[in-house]
């Protein structure tokens, strides 16, 4: 069992804004990470949430302001309205699952490369060429974009079921081996403190 189960969506702006801080926190504490991409829209429907487009206008406006503030605070390039969002998150998620099984590359780097492609580089992360590029730059065989599609689909669906069962309702969402739950990139400092034994 991993020290941190990381539930996320490759379309999530807040997963993008997490950058590589999860990996830095894990490395600091010698913790392992299990990457679990999931269908965030399906998760919303299962846990009482709703996609951004279906939320009240006040929530939509606040979301845009908050994303702008967070990206500025973190010094991260960010497009509030990406050209290719929303798009089909399944292909990029399957690639992450295949890369996780294959090993040999930087899995956290791959996740961030895909998220960055969507939120900062105006690329369609459902595009095979974009996924291959992200795989290659993260040290993986770009051919993983075409392999293990059945296993990828099964794991992707299983991740959603596990997320619902374990109390996940958004992304990014981090669960430790002692079932402490942390929702949002702005809770990574709390995760850090918990792993250090400083949180009650």
In words, what does this structure look like?
The protein has helices spanning 13-17, 21-29, 40-47, 57-74, 90-102, 107-119, 128-137, 149-165, 188-195, and strands at 4-8, 33-37, 173-176, 181-183. The protein has one domain (4-195): 3-Layer(aba) Sandwich (Glutaredoxin), CATH 3.40.30.10. It is α+β, with helices and mostly antiparallel strands and 200 residues long. The mean pLDDT is 96. It has a four-stranded mixed beta sheet. The chain is globular, with a radius of gyration of 16 Å. It has nine helices and four strands, in the order βααβααααααββα.
Q: What secondary-structure arrangement, pairings included, does this model have?
A:
Layout: E1 4-8, H1 13-17, H2 21-29, E2 33-37, H3 40-47, H4 57-74, H5 90-102, H6 107-119, H7 128-137, H8 149-165, E3 173-176, E4 181-183, H9 188-195
Parallel strand pairs: 1-2
Antiparallel strand pairs: 1-3, 3-4
Helix pairs in contact: 2-9, 5-6, 5-8, 6-7
In short:
This protein is of the alpha+beta class and 200 residues long.
Q: What descriptive keywords fit this protein?
A:
four-stranded mixed β-sheet, Glutaredoxin, 9 helices, single chain, 200 residues, 50% helix, alpha+beta, 8% strand
């Amino acid at each position: 069992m991993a020290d941190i189960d990381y539930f996320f969506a490759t379309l999530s702006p807040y997963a993008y804004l997490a950058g590589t801080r999860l990996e830095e926190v894990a490395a600091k504490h010698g913790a392992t990470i299990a990457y679990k991409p999931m269908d965030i829209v399906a998760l919303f429907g299962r846990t009482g949430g709703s996609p951004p487009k279906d939320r009240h206008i006040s929530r939509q406006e606040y979301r845009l302001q908050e994303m702008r503030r967070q990206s500025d605070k973190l010094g991260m390039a960010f497009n509030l309205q990406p050209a290719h969002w929303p798009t089909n998150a399944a292909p990029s998620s399957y690639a992450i699952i295949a890369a996780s099984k294959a090993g040999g590359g930087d899995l956290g780097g791959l996740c961030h490369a895909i998220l960055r492609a969507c939120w900062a580089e105006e690329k369609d992360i459902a595009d095979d060429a974009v996924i291959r590029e992200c795989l290659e730059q993260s040290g993986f065989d770009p051919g993983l974009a075409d392999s293990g599609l059945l296993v990828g689909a099964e794991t992707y669906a299983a991740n959603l079921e596990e997320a619902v069962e374990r109390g996940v309702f958004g992304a990014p969402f981090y669960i430790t081996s002692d079932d402490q739950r942390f929702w949002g990139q702005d809770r990574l400092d709390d995760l850090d403190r918990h792993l250090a034994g400083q949180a009650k």
